[in-house]
Task: structure prediction
Amino acid sequence: MTDAYAQPQEVDDVLLAFPARLGELLPPSEVIPADYPHRHEWLRFQSMWFAGTLPADCQLEAVEGVDAAVAGRHLEAIQRSFEPKHEHKADAVAWLASRWFLRASTPDSSYSCPEVSPRASR
Result:
């Protein structure tokens, strides 16, 4: 069985501007695991992005083999859509971001998802 969400899908400008129908972009709730590494941190990332409080200089570092621009547009289409209930949208964006990105962080490290522990930075 292939993993339909291993890679992001291309999103055209029209769908990005008017993300009414997400189709295959949105994983069904039952596909999203109840727990995965750094789940709470990625949910906080989604929440900050949704609320407009994600730092403007936040940069996403893609997992090897994932096109960061394609992944960003895929997540943005879900984030901007009115189709799913908010909880489903939040879960989908957080889970997909956790799969496609190693981290989201600012250049000065004032924000990092997943958080970098002081021990790990030594």
Observations:
- The longest strand covers residues 101-105.
- The chain has four helices and three strands.
- The mean pLDDT is 93.
